[in-house]
Amino acid sequence: MTYRAIFLTTVMAFGLSAGIARADRLVEEYDAYIGEEDLYNSNGEALTEPWQVIRQDRANYHRYGVSQPGDEGDSFFASAKNREKAERMLEYGTIESRAARALLRGGSVINVQIFRGADGDYINVTVD
Predict the structure, then answer these.
(1) Which of 51, 71, 70 minimizes the C-alpha distance to 60?
(2) What is the Cα 27 distance to its own chain's centre?
(3) Which residue, 17, 50, 110, 119, has most beta carbons within 10 Å?
(4) Which residues lie closer than 8 Å to 87 by C-beta, 6 or more apart?
């Protein structure tokens, strides 16, 4: 095999694998302001993990009607069953370290992208 043939084969293989990675589909995206009430669970206990704050923020928005300026709606987390998946979804997704700190501190707007992939749903979280 010539150098050119090896190079083309490598490029094609890389292109195909990159195409597979991009097969994940963006389901929904929203911004949320993380307010003081999003930092505590329904029993008044302080939340200590970013996924807990995301779950509480969405429960506040959808179930309890609590929102702040900067909160956007979403249909995915309107389901309590989907909110229960938040920990796993963040585990398989990504979160900027700045976003994780902002979630636990409150007072920031985060952007959440919800993806459907071959291995299940996941979220990517950034700070706006």
Answers:
(1) 71
(2) 11
(3) 110
(4) 49, 51, 52, 55
